Each structure stands twice: as structure tokens, then as C-alpha cells.
Amino acid sequence: MEDINPWITIESHKIYENNWIGLTEHQVINPSGGKGIYGEVHFKNYAIGILPLDDDMNTWLIGQYRFPLKAYSWEIPEGGGPLNDDPLESAKRELLEETGLTATEWTEIQRMHLSNSVSNELAIIYIAKGLKEGIAEPEETEQLILRKIPFEEAYQMVMNGQITDSMSVASILKAKILLLEGAL
């Protein structure tokens, strides 16, 4: 039963497209038999997240204003990676761009769908270790603040609601569990 699609698509129309997303509206018969519409956002990139951890269990957070939220956000280093590229190479590029860090050890810790009721966006999250500091190279559209803090402080920021970005929350909580289990 898990593999059976209960939705019937009558027709589909592309509504909008740019370099990052496409929006399709589907005329459907829903699982209860009623007619309706379903809007679907198609992402043209992976969402890539990196939780850098140094030997002293410090991490780096990026602060930036997020236009869709109309609010400031503290997050792990994140960005997009083309679907045809190796996600790890995209992670290495994003970490360098946003923090100036390079890493010798990379571990994928999570794959997750960020909003699976309306989009197909897949997030891939890594822990980066064996860090070497350098100079950040943010994109021209990014106005970032970089903070190096103890991992435990980042964990507390998740617990008290200061960090709300889904990839940041998931990666920090997963890393905390891995630490408690002695697997990190």
C-alpha cells in the first residue's frame, strides 16, 4: 500500500519558472475522490547544509536576513548544489564561500525533505571536521555575519528557539544525539 499513489492527475500546467524553482499547478482527483488543485514547487538544486566542528567542539553559524521570512536567521552554513553535481563538492564550495573554512573529514549525517507537502526539495547535511580557517568568499547577494561558538551554545539556541531553520535544527539535534551515543 505504501507504493500506491492515491492521487489522479487530470492535467498539469507550468505556472512559473526561474533559475532556482519551477511551479506547476495540477488538476487532480484527490484520495477521497474529489476534484481539486495541487501546487507543486520543483527545486533545481539540492539544499546543502554543513555543520563544521573543530577539535574543541566549536561550530560556525551564519547570520543573515531571510527575505521570505522578513526576519533575521542564525543558521549552519547552507546553500544550493546543482542536481547534476556531486553534493559533497557543493558542500565544500558552500563551506568555503560562507565561512572561509576547508575540511579534511566529511560525513553525511542526514537527508531530508524540507517541505514535502508542496515541494520536492531534498536537503543533504554534512558534518565537516579537520578544519582549516581561511577567508570567506560570500556571493554578491549575501550579507552574512559569521560567528564561531561552542557547539553546546548552538544546541541551546535550537532548544530555546533562537535557531529555527530546519536544516540547522535537524543537524544540530542529530549531532547532539551522535555525541551522546559516542558516535561522533
Describe the protein's architecture and organization.
- It is built from three helices and ten strands, in the order βββββββαβββαα.
- With 184 residues, the protein is of the alpha+beta class.
- A four-stranded mixed β-sheet has the order 7-4-9-8, sandwiched between helices.
Short recap of the structure:
The protein is of the alpha+beta class and 184 residues long. Helix content is 20%, strand content 46%. The chain is built from three helices and ten strands; from the N terminus they run E-E-E-E-E-E-E-H-E-E-E-H-H.
Describe this protein with a few key phrases.
single chain, 3-stranded antiparallel beta sheet, 4-stranded mixed beta sheet, 3 helices, 184 residues, alpha+beta, 10 strands
Question: Which helices and strands appear, and what pairs or packs with what?
Answer:
Layout: E1 8-17, E2 21-29, E3 35-43, E4 45-52, E5 58-66, E6 71-75, E7 78-82, H1 87-99, E8 102-113, E9 122-132, E10 145-150, H2 151-159, H3 166-180
Parallel strand pairs: 4-9
Antiparallel strand pairs: 1-2, 2-3, 4-7, 5-6, 5-10, 8-9
How would you describe the oligomerization state of the chains in this entry? single chain
Q: In angstroms, what separates the terminal alpha carbons?
A: 37 Å
Biggest sheet details: 4 strands, mixed
Report the order of strands and helices: EEEEEEEHEEEHH
Helix content: 10-25%
Name the overall outline: elongated
Number of strands: 10
Radius of gyration: 19 Å
Number of H- or I-type helical stretches: 3
